[in-house]
Amino acid sequence: MPRLLSRLAVAGTAVVLAAGLTSPTAALAAAKPAERARALSWVAMGDSFTAGVIEATGAETEPRDGCARTVESYPEIIRRDLGALTDLRNVSCSGATTENVRATKLSPLGRPLPPLGTDPNAPYPPVPPQIDSAGPDTDLITVGVGGNDLGFGQILLDCIELGATHLGQGTPCKDKYDTQLPSRLGQLRTDYAAMLTALQAKAPSAKVITVGYPHLIPEDATHCQYGNLLHFATVTTGDLAWARTAILEPLNAVIARSSTDHGDTFVDLYPASAGHSVCDPDHWLDGILTSVLPLRYGLVHPNARGQAGAAAAVERAVLGG
User: Fold this and answer.
1) N or C, where is the chain less crowded by C-beta within 10 Å?
2) Is the dihedral of CA 170, 173, 174, 176 positive or negative?
3) Alpha-carbon span 109 to 127, nearest angstrom
């Protein structure tokens, strides 16, 4: 049995499961206290797609440190699902890059809330590199990061502005950024590999699960309404199609390849979230805004349904060995 599962297993679990108790918490409850393995030592790392951030993923967890972790983010959902089976340290943080995971502090901005647009409690003190929360006794690391390395947030802002100045026509964002992306993706490959190497060195016994990014933009970008703040505001149709194929899909490919090269497990959120993009009726991701009245920011992030979908996929990877 893999070391990770041995931390989740209890004496007699196979018998209990054969009898029809299929949930890990039910198996844990059925075992005598003296027979229980110690709780799985798990560190959840990542950026805002892991932390939650937006109001559509619930209240912030306490204590607040500016990272904007929320109660409906996927690490917190899994924490509730697995209960006493896990001992989770959730150090994910909005704005994090691979470097913030591996080596450098991050000065978090907090959660943007109207009417101010910025967190009224900001600025926050810098938070340590996320790797500092892992060690030789860590059994599991999950990490979802990489988008900020490519500067995806700034590219999106520029696409909104350029789309407005071009009245929704053409591909002005592609024209600005397309030649820059190969070098950015190349640097991400180097930095992501360095991060995974550092995690394996810091926690040599840990199973490392990397988490990709969901299907933000539909296969048919014409489903997104130009000027709709619940979608991508004034990003042109052509730039949305470009961003999907030139940014998001290559980003996931870099994460997947680096994970395979390091012997780690990659959780691909892209296929399951197809048909649930920002512009789909049953959307797992919110657009620039979650709602207009009341005014709530979405910031093109997973909502509670999207985080639940990620939780299901990551939990399967955790329990799968």
Assistant:
1) N
2) positive
3) 11
Residue 15 lies in a domain: no
> What are the backbone dihedrals phi and psi of residue 194, each rounded to the nearest 5 degrees, phi first?
-65, -40
Mean pLDDT of the chain: 90
Of 102-111, 112-121, 145-154, 207-216, the one with minimum mean pLDDT is 112-121
User: What is the full DSSP assignment across 11-74?
Assistant: TTHHHHHHTT--SHHHHHHHS-GGGBPPPEEEEEEESHHHHB-SGGG-SBPSS--SS-BBTTSH
Which CATH number goes with the domain that contains 158? 3.40.50.1110
Count up the domains in the chain and report the number: 1
Long-range contacts (CB closer than 8 Å, 24 or more residues apart) made by 34-38: 35/10, 35/11, 36/10, 37/6, 37/7, 37/8, 37/9, 37/10, 38/7
Torsion sign across C-alpha atoms 63, 64, 70, 74: negative
Asked whether 206 and 260 are in contact (CB, 8 A), the reply is no
Q: 282, 153, 160: which is closest to 218 by C-alpha?
A: 282
Q: What is the mean pLDDT of residues 276-297?
A: 96
Is 16 domain-assigned? Answer: no
Location of structure tokens 């990770």: 4
Q: Compute CA 194 distance to the chain's CA centroid, rounded to the nearest angstrom.
A: 19
In 3D space, the residue among 49, 92, 60 whose CA is nearest the CA of residue 307 turns out to be 49
pLDDT on residue 5: 55
Query: What is the DSSP secondary-structure string of 107-129?
Result: -------TTTSS-TT---PPBPP
Note down the domain range covering 77: 39-319
The residue type found at 273 is S
Query: Residue 112's pLDDT band (boundaries 50, 70, 90)?
Result: confident
